[in-house]
Write a structure and sequence with these properties.
This protein is of the alpha+beta class and 178 residues long. The strands form four sheets. A four-stranded antiparallel beta sheet has the order 4-11-10-7. Strands 1-3-2 form a three-stranded antiparallel beta sheet. The chain is globular and about 55 Å long.
């Protein structure tokens, strides 16, 4: 029986659950858990906890995470990411680096954030994306989340690249939509 923690570089388009399933089957493991869901369009480190080590996943789930995000201004989608249908198009106001920096400062610290409807948050035992795909309206409550820092990596007048360090429950997609 294998016990331990492994770091997987989750590729684009795979769900965290699919990665867990593949590893569990490939190595014939009885229990595999992950240290926090990554969206299918997110790439990066996904910690997997194997067999008896699954009890340690709480330490990863409750720790801060670092995200690199690319936000395109002027369009909103149904899923708050590039996969969704475009639901709104707006002209982009002239924004300087300083304008962006000043705007981002209000997101540092403890903030209220409502998870996107296309997420794995459970409602009546089913992930909220189940209801969203069937066009069934459900309410998701806002939650307090912690943002340690937001650094601007690039701003070209349309695309904003950021490095965000945030705590449990933070959704980059919701942040981008706001």
């Amino acid at each position: 029986m294998h016990n331990g923690i492994i770091a997987i570089d989750k590729p684009l388009s795979l769900t965290s659950s699919k990665v867990v399933s593949v590893i569990k089957k490939k190595f014939n493991l009885s229990k595999v858990g992950h240290g926090g869901t990554l969206d299918p369009l997110a790439t990066g480190v996904l910690l997997l906890f194997l067999n008896r080590a699954t009890k340690f996943s709480v330490f990863s789930l409750n720790s801060e995470k670092e995200y690199k995000a690319l936000i395109t201004f002027g369009q909103s989608t149904s899923t708050f990411d590039a996969e969704g249908d475009i639901v709104e198009t707006k002209s982009i106001p002239e924004l300087s680096y300083e304008d962006i920096k000043n705007s981002l400062s209000k997101y540092i610290g403890i903030i209220d954030q409502t998870p996107p409807i296309f997420s794995a948050i459970k409602i009546k035992g089913k992930p909220s994306y189940y209801y969203a795909r069937k066009n069934i309206k459900v309410e998701l409550s806002s939650k307090k989340v912690y943002v340690e820092s937001i650094d601007i990596l690039n701003w070209d007048g349309r695309n904003l690249e950021l490095k965000i360090v945030a705590g449990k429950g933070f959704y980059v997609r919701t942040f981008a939509d706001e």
